[in-house]
Amino acid sequence: MESVFGLVGKDFAIVAADSSAVHSILVHKTNEDKIMILDSHKLMGASGETGDRAQFTEYIQKNVALYQFRNGIPLTTAAAANFTRGELATALRKNPYMVNIIMAGYDKDIGPSIYFIDYIASLHKLDKAAFGYGSYFALSMMDRHYRKDMIVEEAIDLVDKIIMEIRSRLVVAPPNFVIKIVDKDGAREYAWRESIKDAPVPGV
Amino acid sequence: MARYDRAITVFSPDGHLFQVEYALEAVRKGNAAVGVRGTDTIVLAVEKKSTPKLQDSRSVRKIVNLDNHIALACAGLKADARVLINRARIECQSHKLTVEDPVTVEYITRYIAGLQQKYTQSGGVRPFGLSTLIIGFDPYSGVPSLYQTDPSGTFSAWKANATGRNSNSIREFLEKNYKETSGQETVKLAMRALLEVVESGGKNLEVAVMTKDHGLRQLEEAEIDAIVAEIDAEKAAAEAAKKAPPKET
């Protein structure tokens, strides 16, 4: 029931994820942050098995940081995406991580980019991507409304349309979403879309 | 004596581990390095022996980051340093991964010293031939720290210290002239100490300054030259002041 989706705009990339933490029929919390900021200009929205998600995304984040200390320069988004895929692929035939990832980044000479990495280690560089049951609605909405080089307001408008579709059409729809953006000024939280207010502080 | 210095795992009859002492000799031959702890600034300054004309000096960085809030300088075998620094960087990230907290300066110092000690008690290996100066700010309390480790695996905290070539003279200078400083004064104290044994000039010094808010900043050659000029001017003024008073009485 988790949804993650993302799209590339004119000189930014946006990733949105639902923020429900669910265990069988119980909703633990509705403000879980599933989009990890890897470094100054990369973020990674992940959905799937809760333990695997936390473990794997933190592991990737620390390795991205280590690369930067060892080499004095940060990884490119493509390199980070390929590294992530490689880790998933290596674990696949032993002890697979059940995590689906949308990685977004901004590189100085390349601009914004988004990578779709699923739990069986496929990697695709795309303009728009989505995971989960919400992807049925997200991809349809993006196919209909997405254009290249949208500005932030247009992209957020599209994200909101998608969230509205998910909320109204998915039987067990997540009530709250978090939206994060990455552009030349860095990766940061953009907004929350809450229809149920849980704790006043966003997830730790 | 010669029989007791071949293997690291052999004590001599008078209780020496000769390999460790020889490693300390290697450190004494390495470039001079100074660390000074101020109230809000910590400075590392390392001697840069003359760079060959064709060498790209940017590829030879002597002061390195271990994490956002920790830096290290060393004296001794640079190749050994690379290995130790790599292990320390991995440990910094690994610590954050397992306990969700950045390392404290003491923790990573203890880790590096522990590594150095391991290599004094194993068969078939030799000790790391370097002493390190580790600086950083505690991630939560913001307290600045300076630590030193050596090839035997001992470590201790210091207000100011030196290692490598002529470290005794530099330490004497620091003992005479140390006082609590902050900001630019700390930088000047570290540089004055190093300039006791190193030729003056931006191209002979590598200086890096760490503050709580901005992390580690390597000073440019021009900046170093400017501070050296200030130090020289202050020295000249002090000399002149010493000679002037007798005439006034």
Automatic annotation (TrEMBL), chain A:
UniProt-listed InterPro entries: Ntn_hydrolases_N, Proteasome_beta2, Proteasome_bsu_CS, Proteasome_sua/b, Proteasome_suB-type
SUPFAM superfamilies (alphabetical): N-terminal nucleophile aminohydrolases (Ntn hydrolases)
GO cellular component terms, semicolon-separated: cytoplasm; nucleus; proteasome core complex
Family per similarity comment: Belongs to the peptidase T1B family.
Physiological role: Component of the proteasome, a multicatalytic proteinase complex which is characterized by its ability to cleave peptides with Arg, Phe, Tyr, Leu, and Glu adjacent to the leaving group at neutral or slightly basic pH. The proteasome has an ATP-dependent proteolytic activity.
SUBUNIT field: Component of the proteasome complex.
Name of the protein in its database record: Proteasome subunit beta
Lineage, uppermost ranks: Eukaryota, Viridiplantae, Streptophyta, Embryophyta, Tracheophyta
TrEMBL record, chain B:
GO BP terms: ubiquitin-dependent protein catabolic process
GO CC annotations on file: cytoplasm; nucleus; proteasome core complex, alpha-subunit complex
Assigned keywords, A-Z: Cytoplasm, Nucleus, Proteasome
Gene3D superfamilies recorded: Glutamine Phosphoribosylpyrophosphate, subunit 1, domain 1
InterPro entries for this protein: Ntn_hydrolases_N, Proteasome_alpha, Proteasome_alpha-type, Proteasome_asu_N, Proteasome_sua/b
Family label: Belongs to the peptidase T1A family.
Compartmental location: Cytoplasm; Nucleus
Signal sequence interval, chain numbering: none
Function description: The proteasome is a multicatalytic proteinase complex which is characterized by its ability to cleave peptides with Arg, Phe, Tyr, Leu, and Glu adjacent to the leaving group at neutral or slightly basic pH.
Protein name, as recorded: Proteasome subunit alpha type
PROSITE patterns for the chain: PROTEASOME_ALPHA_1, PROTEASOME_ALPHA_2
Pfam families on file: Proteasome, Proteasome_A_N
Record text on subunit structure and interactions: The 20S proteasome core is composed of 28 subunits that are arranged in four stacked rings, resulting in a barrel-shaped structure. The two end rings are each formed by seven alpha subunits, and the two central rings are each formed by seven beta subunits.
TM regions (residue ranges): none
Domain Proteasome alpha-type subunits per the UniProt entry, residue ranges: 4-26
Top-rank taxon, per record: Eukaryota
